[in-house]
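Re: weekly structure request thread

Next one in the queue (887 aa):
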Amino acid sequence: MNKYIRFVLRWPKTVIAVLLLISIILTPGIKRLEFDNSVEAFLPKDDQEYLFFNQIRNIYGDNGRFLIMAITPENLWYPETFRELDRFFTDLEEYQTFDEAREQERLRRFEALMDRPGDISRRDLMNAFADDPGFQRLLERKSATIFGRKGHFNGSDLRGLRKKIIRSCELKRSGMIDDIISPLTAQDITGRDDTLEAYYLVEKDDRGKRILPGNDRELGEFRSKLERNPAFEKGIYSRDSETGEITSFGAVIKFFNKGDRNPIACEILQIIESYPELGITPQGMEMVYIWINRYLHHDLFTFIPIVLLVVILVFFFNFRTTRGVLLPFISLAMGLFWILGLMGYLGCKITAIGVAIPVLMIAVGSSYSIHIMNQYYADFRMISQKGKIEGLRLSMTHISLTVLLAGLTTFIAFMTLVTSSLIGIRDWGFFCALGVLFAVMISSSLIPAGLALLPHSTEVALTRGGPKAGFVDRIIRLMTRGATVHYRKVMVAVAIVLCISFVGIYRLEIETTFLSYFKEHDPIRRSAKLIGDRFGGEQCLNILIDSGKADGTKDPGFLMMVEDFRGWLESEDNPDLNVGRTDAFPDYIKTMHMAMNNDRRSYFSIPVHSSDIMDYLEIYSGEDVNSDGRVDDFESYVDRDFRTTNVLARICQKQGHPIGTAEINHIASRIAEHLRGTLPPGMYHRITGHPMINVKLAYYIVMGQVLSLFLSLFVIGVIVTLLFNHIKAGLLALIPMSVAVIFNFGIMGLLGIKLDLATSIIAAVTIGIGVDDTIHFLNTFRHNREKGCSVDETIAKTLAVSGKAIIFTSLALILGFSVLVTSKFIPVILFGILMATTMIATTAGALLILPAAIKLTGVRIVMHEESESWLARSLNLGRLFGLEQEK
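Done, posted below.
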């Protein structure tokens, strides 16, 4: 480190130029950052549950991840409402069925308008496509998104609009939408002349235009069509619970199991928002991900300026000089740009926990800068006596080495998260660890280089620089007295806190459901409740029942058993199952049976004779586009051999609270127990779906937390032992960190704060950051102890020297993490509060608990060279890094 500091001080301009050049190269990568909050962003791709889930999606389609809408206009049964609905679904259908020739002609005509000289008014632009209402509406949506209600567009505006048009065309070409199910697009089954045929509830004319009901009589006929089939209720329409009238239409958009669905979901949401008069409430995981991305974007660009302002204030109150604020600020800003830019270039996406990276990097980077600047002001007189460059070399070599070692241990603690099975947490740990290295390197380079170039002004430094006495000094005196006089009481208090914390840990629960990330009155939470009440829920369980033989799903006995099971799922006697609606293959058989018996409701049931079912399936004229032996309508519910049926159970809130991981686990356990007790020998079942993936996610969180915790403590203990060449130093280092971690999880359990993706990384962060203060304390303690001071004197001197820096760095961390309370996400808010609380605990651990433990045990942490074995000399990292040299 001495050689590196010599180089920095000899070539300060070169060092600063290199740092700036790297910043210029990496910073543009920030623009490439994207957001991803799907379960796939976290779950390991080789997980057996995830592999089976994907296998089922390939067989039955992705039925569990859909976009569902409740359409509740003020006047539902008006002809104009149906015309507006037709325009809405027509806009959506353009993304389901791509027409290459039409899109190219649209683009050609738009480019022809661009070639005209001068500006073009909004009215003229829209009138140019009066013969193409669908494209006209697309132009309205895109121009409103980019320009608001701007009345005229210049060439630059039109080029920007052209990019949006091309982007929409690409989305249409991608063919992400599998099916759109709604009152205007749904099919029913009719039985005529001994033939079963599928027909659209709303027929189309020869030009492909829907023939909409245009008067009261036609509206009544359409209502009768809806009410004819019981399967449509809570599917494509819902009734008012008090009047029994149809007040809402439902629509479901199913996606193919391919690619990133976020762009098409955003496009759909834009279309929805362009029809405010229809009163559309969208829900489903795709909508949840969109809202998460919106909030993450808000949080990311809200956190950064606030936390920067916070650390600037900490720098100012600590140093009171321009250089004391400017150099640390530039240092941590560079570190932030480096890590975010690198993430952008590498294609690493921001997740719900990744949004905390900027706050963490700024907070951690500020702590290293504070230690270096504190050392500069503490050694100011020595630097004046030795000469600026030589004095800076002596001062900066010592503190930069300490910062390097602190950063190394923090790096290792974060790297333990790389062992996690969850991809998102693994990436988070890696980039945080890398960001720590960037912060150490930049602060150890930029600040010494900047100080070498700036004038060494005695008057300014001594009158304005350095930490001020007062409140901080009183804290130091209080800590000193507690550690040296009342150390037994301190350790008894710690023991009591630990006992209470263990009680809280026993109560700790896990939560991985993304909907729980939102606040109670957030629109996305309210819409989930509404969709659950009207249409049975926004997420599905896939309950697979294997009949044990080919064509077994065509057997009346099997189908009746499935119907009994569905009745049990939806029964009001089982509200804990929270199943609002089920869909299954028997619905088609019952509809066929009713159609072949003059649409009499009493025949909406499973036929008694298997020959009837075989006949119905034989004469049904449904399409089989992919020629896999199944009518397209059946693909979501039976496999190719008609051996296994897929019961789709929608989950909703029946008991007044959100459905979380614990509830999903309970539901799955109850269903499995019921099926084990009712299925005949030879039949099997299995439950999967997105809710079950969340349950598996909870398992990985627990296992990752335990592994990361013990691995972090073990590795840090070993590293500190090798650094100080004393095993007792390693054991002592674990005390404040272990207490802080146990205290954190105890608080979570006692306050009902659940362990989730955000809070699951607290242990590694606590250990990684908390060890910095521990190393600073132990290093200074060892130096003073080797000078022959008593334990009490050593503790007092150590706290006087290191205490202020530790307090100010901790203040920066506490205030930095407190910024997270401005988030729109509950886990991020709780993460910020818990981290701020834990930083207080680690500070108290380093300044009170650690010295009290040293006083109680009488540990000296002094290694005499003559007593060293060959192995001890070989493993002495402290000597390797020069840690044992005097300041």
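The chain is about 60% helix and 10% strand. The mean pLDDT is 85.
Next request, please.
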